[in-house]
Design goal:
Blueprint (H helix, E strand, L loop, with lengths): L19 H6 L10 E8 L5 E3 L7 E4 H14 L3 E6 L19 H12 L4 E6 L13 E2 L2 E2 L2 H17 L3 E4 L6 H11 L6 E8 L6 H7 L20 H12 L4 E5 L5 H11 L3 E5 L1 H12 L5 H15 L3 E4 L2 H9 L2
Helix pairs in contact: 2-3, 3-4, 4-5, 7-8
The structure holds ligand PBG.
Length: 333
């Protein structure tokens, strides 16, 4: 940046803020519907929808209703949805075998949405927590979350989801070496074009608890995820994580959670320049809704401000439960 000696009163910074058209003209960034990925929750059953207490305004949908919801997102111009299953407790096992069942809930949802809306992108999570009776993202032995043994299962899960028609696989598990393992497994299974968006810098955050309510993994989780998710105090470590995932073949990277981690997002984008995404997570959504429902902040204003800040920090896109609301606002201009 060129530093000039600007002084008042020749320079008046407020001059360029005088009118809406002028503020539009000097805006440095722009939030567009093209930047949004909408995370959605899927449940078993027909014509069924459930509210989620800790995420007011967000619902779990059975596959048939999810197809309609995905259609609404597509109509608004949202490029992709990201599916998360609430798996019934009976199918959760210590070996998380339901994760690679080609007929599991998430694979059925992928096939149904693809059939109805072939032009809508579909992203799926790769991690064992919806299927694991311990609620962890990896296999558990004693007190340990196993790394290398988990990779095999993640690869089977990734291939099952790719076979179902998933476009973007989002490994959210934070096991070491999973990107290389998954890329090899996908290529060998005939899916060289399935995109990987790694949750490259994913922190052990308290902001995921509403999500864990939504997918039903919170109650079963034993302990915490600090041996695999990152320490919120670290930033250099995020750069190493992202470098590893890029070298292992990821196509896109993600920083998670969102607003409290914009410094990490900016560093990642400016260091590597690869497609970089932010996850505006469930706890952030819950805080926004809680304050808005108390009349303390304006939901639409703070939501659009938050999403815009991700763009300013360098995000190429944002996963947000607010995506549909934001797209409606953007559409109405
Ligand atoms: C699970 C997963 C989590 C989220 C996405 N995938 C939770 C966790 O790691 O416990 C969080 C999303 C959110 O809070 O909105 N692997």
């Amino acid at each position: 940046m060129i530093q000039t000696a600007r002084t008042f009163p020749a320079t008046r910074m407020r001059r360029n803020r005088r009118a809406p058209w002028l503020r539009r003209l000097v805006a440095e960034n722009k939030l567009s519907t093209d930047d949004l990925i909408w995370p959605v929750f899927v449940i078993d059953g027909d014509n069924t929808r459930q509210t989620i207490e800790s995420m007011p305004g967000v619902e779990r949908f059975s596959v048939d209703l999810l197809v309609d919801a995905a259609g609404a997102a597509k109509e608004l111009g949202i490029p992709a949805v990201c599916l998360f299953p609430q798996t019934s407790p009976e199918v959760k096992t210590p070996d998380a075998r339901e994760a690679w069942n080609p007929d599991n809930l998430v694979c059925r949802a992928v096939r149904a949405i693809k059939a109805a809306h072939p032009d809508l992108g579909i992203m799926c999570d790769v991690a064992l927590d919806p299927y694991n009776s311990d609620g962890h993202d990896g296999l558990v032995r004693g007190d340990e979350i196993l790394n290398d043994e988990t990779l095999e299962i993640l690869c089977k899960q990734a291939v099952a989801q790719a076979q179902a028609g998933c476009d973007i696989l989002g490994p959210s598990d934070m096991m070491d070496g999973r990107i290389a393992a998954m890329r090899t497994a996908l290529d060998e299974a005939g899916f060289p074009n399935t995109v990987i968006m790694s949750y490259a810098a994913k922190y052990a955050s308290g902001l995921y608890s509403p999500f864990r309510d939504a997918v039903g993994s919170g109650g079963v989780l034993k302990g915490d995820k600090k041996t695999y998710q990152m320490n919120p105090l670290n930033s250099d470590e995020a750069i190493h994580e992202v470098a590893l995932d890029i070298n292992e073949g990821t196509d896109m990277v993600m920083v998670k959670p969102g607003l409290a981690y914009l410094d990490v997002l900016q560093r990642v984008k400016s260091t590597f320049g690869v497609p970089t995404y932010a996850y505006h997570v469930s706890g952030e959504y819950a805080m926004l809704q809680a304050a808005a429902r108390n009349g303390w902040i304006d939901y639409e204003i703070v939501m659009m401000e938050s999403l815009s800040c991700f763009k300013r920090a360098g995000a190429d896109g944002i996963l947000s439960y607010c995506a549909l609301d934001a797209a409606k606002i953007l559409k109405s201009g």
